[in-house]
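Lab notebook, bench 4. We co-purified these components, and the gel suggests they stay together. Before we commit to crystallization screens, I want a quick structural picture of the whole thing.
Request: model the full complex, all chains together.
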Amino acid sequence: MKFFQLEPKTHANYLGVKGWAYGGRYGIERYLYTLQRVTGLGVLLYLPMHLIVTSQKLNQAGWEQVMGLVARGLLPFGEFLVFVGGVFHAFNGIRLLLTHFGFLMAQPARPIYPFTVAALKQRWAVYLVFVMTTVVVGYGAWEFLIVAHH
Amino acid sequence: MRESTLWLFHLLAGAVLLTVLGVHYGVMHLSNLFGIDHATVLSFSSVSGRSGRFFYLVVYLVLLPAALYHGLYGLRSLIFELSFIGLVLRRWISRILILSGSGFLIYGAYAIIAGFLG
Amino acid sequence: MAADIKQLEKKYVGKEVEFRLLRFAPDKDRAPYFQSFRIKLSQGMTVLDALMRIKETQDPTLSYRKSCRMGICGSCAMQVNGFPKLTCQTQVTELNTDKPIEVRPLANFPILRDLVPDLRNFLKAHESIKPYVIREDAEELDHPTGEFYQSPKELEKYLQFAYCIKCGACLAACPTNATDHEFLGPQALAAAYRYVADSRDQGLEQRLEAVDGPNGIFRCHYAGACSEACPKGVDPSLGIQLLKREILKYRVGAAHKKPAPLAVTPKGLKRREGIPLPPEKTVGQ
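Here is the predicted assembly.
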């Protein structure tokens, strides 16, 4: 027996893609979610271009021509940004990888007020991600932007 | 294929990338640290010299599929999380990603192997 | 902390505060809009109290959901100044702001009317993960003859996730739910873990149908916002990551789980004198 069901009219109230960028006063982890996406997407977009450029290594004339091409204007700086994105993505990826397998996480406990949040208990790992990224990117910057042009 | 299988490969590819992309970054962009002169690292002789070595053949043959899979699965996740993508569209997006990934894999593998054989 | 609250009460109690409420009547409004109300704060007044006061004294058409008024039923979760909260547990003074207090229905749910979110998909997601103990000995479940053994340690593995009141605050916080309307959501996934981690349960494989789907657990990328928003300390993001580990264990064949056995009633023991008899059994007669 099928009952007549009233379908209520509703209004969509999803945060949408904007919700990735800003959702409210949450911890930094929610914004690392977005940063991980943006950096991943940046490195992915670079990959096909990089493949096409580096496959010119099969002959010397083509290689020298394409190397001259990518050294123009802001392109080296763009490459540096991809490097920064890649380094952050890797270190944050290690944090996520360990978390997905349940390491770095607190164990379940009785929820007694004030409640603890396992995600916030590993804030040190977030800081470590930033420190490691800064160290590697700092050294990379020296080689990318200074050594490479002398 | 089950989502958990795809996701597990994504994580494995990520773990592999940490190593081989680490080698790639180390050689290309942090070369001074390892005693390689940065000025020559991109010269044709240096590049083709590396291409001929078995170590780099292995590194790049591992790096290429891992990077393509990790990246394209990540892109697929991102696209699938946008709700206006329906089921039929999803199937087509998966096919397009597999096709383009395979295309780049063949293209890149050709360049790596041809570079090794000189 | 107590001193802080006293100071805050001194600062705000008796003052008139402006509430900006999101209004939407599906039969006449094309889009939601904000409407302002001013009320005088009394001591200990929660945001829900304020909404009730507004409904009683200023606008009887204002719609919102509430039931228990003490953080048990999970009906009254709303976005208060941009953060999902149980309005019955949020005192107006603790918001500590002179600006108008903005109350909207929970984000990432369709609006039915004013501050009332449409929870149908949310509850369907919860249903899809089979939120009950599943065992191979179904006969024992249908016609129980006793209890199952469970140690306090085994209980603690899932107890935290059993505190969920299904208020929906976690979905309002989740960045994946912001775009993926079909995503199961932190609530259903944490509930799935609650049963998977239960020593009496054998239902992981059955739950995988929903959990391991294209809109399932692997759409979670661990933003942790759901746990921050949870008003009951359930910590859904923790449950989800632990469930991921369980699924991987299962997929590599390492999740051999023997369900908790039936407790045996000791026989042949003599009752000490003066101890009253237990009440009559309600099951297994």
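The two ends of chain B are 39 Å apart (CA to CA). Worth comparing against the SEC data before the next meeting. Chain B has a mean pLDDT of 87.
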